[in-house]
Amino acid sequence: MRIQSLHGLKKRVDKQPQICYTVFSVMTMTIKLAEDAVGSLSKPSKMPGFGYSTPAEDCITGSKLATVKNSICSFCYARKGRYAFSNVKNAMKKRLKAIERSDWIDMMVFMIGKREKSGFFRWHDSGDIQGVWHLEKIAEVARRLPHIKFWLPTREYRFVREWMQLNRKPDNLIIRLSAYMMDGEPPTKLASKLGLPTSGARREGFSCPASTQGNECGDCRACWDDSIENIDYKKH
Ligand code: SF4
Question: In the structure, what pLDDT confidence band is assigned to residue 6 with cuts at 50, 70 and 90?
């Protein structure tokens, strides 16, 4: 269910714990049941843990940016390679539809809680948040799994700005506001107003070391560390 207004969202959020316990009290969950309902977790190749991805074509801001020369989205890795395989595309479409389900939070909490052993989860190695309602759902998953750190890179600044008014960001959800353009400024002003870190594709500050270590994170967990104000990634 989509909730469009912040007021409606606040009312809904206050009710959520009750909804969760009701659902869990009447059914015995399995990973298979959860995957059938909301799709499987993704396994981004270089990451230490699991992720959850939706189609890059459905990024609200990113799909517009993809047509802009030298935007980061015009080089998007999630529109090519294995992301273009039909089975991967179908799995992403299923997840996109599933985020509107009223039981999506319960299913995700169950699946991530059971499967994520690294302690680090990435939202949207492909795709982006679809609204304030979606971001609140992601935040609720993080609240219910406080032992896991969640990283959400996003270009949907307006949704983040509106949602931050709720003042309910869990500490284990790291939201990085991502730059639009190659060699462009990340949205530093907005990020510092909201108290959030950023990411971009320049050659300044902390630079992602993955390309120098077999395209893997290895021991690096910088993306999940909000004391690192900005991370720059190399073009894929
Ligand atoms: S900065 Fe570190 S954690 Fe983030 S993608 Fe690069 S290697 Fe992985």
Answer: low
Continuous segment of H or E residues that includes residue 120: strand 120-123
Ligand 1, atom 3: closest residue by C-alpha: 221
Residues 124, 44: Cα–Cα separation, whole Å: 10
Other beta carbons less than 10 A from residue 203's beta carbon: 9
Neighbours of 233 (CB within 10 A): 18
Q: Is 170 in the pocket of ligand 1 (CB under 6 A)?
A: no
Q: Identify whether the C-beta of residue 173 lies closer than 8 Å to the C-beta of residue 179.
A: no
Whether 112 contacts 50, CB under 8 Å = yes
Amino acid letter at 218?
Answer: G
For ligand 1, whether the C-beta of 209 sits within 6 Å is yes
Q: Whose CA is nearest to atom 6 of ligand 1?
A: 208
Alpha-carbon span 180 to 20, nearest angstrom = 37
- In the sheet with 149-154, reading across from the earlier edge strand, the strands are 51-52, 120-123, 149-154, 173-178, 198-200, 230-232, 206-207
What pTM was computed for the model?
Answer: 0.89
